[in-house]
Amino acid sequence: NMIKAKNNIKTVLEKQGRSQVWLAKAIDKSVNTVNAYVQNRTQPSLDILYKIAEVLDVNPKDLLIDKNESDD
Description:
The protein contains four helices and no strands. By secondary structure, it is mainly alpha-helical.
């Protein structure tokens, strides 16, 4: 059973007041793709995760939800 990874991209975007459209342009992905990341329907590859962290100026770990902290 694979643990379903979740990301925190939505929270970070909201905190920074940035849009999904902005992020999509910044990482050169479609808005649909970014929306899938934000809604946790799809997880970005490690490369993309690092790119997102870079453009948002956060630690890549901050974009991942720690299973221990999440009450899912």
